[in-house]
Amino acid sequence: MAAKAKVVLTDYVWDSLDVEKKTLEGIAELVALQTKKADEFLAQAADCDALLNTYAGPITAEAMARMPKCKIIARYGIGVDTIDLDAATKAGIIVTNNPTYCIEEVAEHTMALLVSCARKIPLYDRIVRAGRWEVPPGKPMFRLAGRTLGLVGFGNIAREVAVRAAAFGMKVLFTDPFVSAGQFPAPGKKVELNGLLREADFVSVHPPLIPQTRGMMNDETFALMKPTAFIVNCSRGPIINTDALVRALDAKKIAGAALDTTDPEPLPNPHPLRGRENVVITPHAAWYSEQAMVGLQAGAPNEVRRVLTGEWPVNVVNKAVKGKSRAGL
Q: What's the CATH fold of domain 5-101+290-321?
């Protein structure tokens, strides 16, 4: 009888591993860890056949060289910015992600943050909790209908935000070098980034974190925004240069910010972004719902099962690995 494969889980944020155990039953032994850095899981992963990964990393070429049997690195989430994809392809390691598990949740959270900025809901909640009952501290406020939302990136999540914003009567602009005008039925007019920043009352960022987008919201881009505009981030924290955001807020170049992701994450306490009346921060919670959790937890283990049983996985990020993978696929 052939020995079972070994699957190492680097880290996880849920209470039970029943899904993973059931998915891999009869195929692989699951070794579940709670690590943050590659050096902390490599001792166990040195002889692994597959790696399940949530946040721990980065997973570099050096780390992959220390996992000579690893056939697949399966991320639970959407982003793969912590994995060296070129190195994985060269090493013959398949990398998968889970691109659809929380589209609705992140779109809803984006709109919740946008509305919170527009209606000053967190500010009013704090005022009432402090025993006050006053409208003037929230002034000025403007109705959403007729205002402009600018979407930086027009992927699955951004397009769902566009649908929701249009339902509020907002005008939607988007910029995305990989999406052409009219390519998708979602509301939105394609424009250049600089034009979007000058016109938008709310700028919501949704690009993947790649070298070209890291820090793309910086002193120069904030200077183009309206002083009455808000920026919303439910994508990746490093899309926004944190120091530049603090400078823009201090100089009143923009009206405020709403952030579900930050750089660093979590924000240290104290931090210049904490405690501001015009900044709303949530703890990287946009992805979560009970329904999304089911999709999140099932995605990566099923990709591992496919590879270990000789199938090509569904959501391969480094497609160039096909035909030269360690799995023989």
A: Rossmann fold (3.40.50)
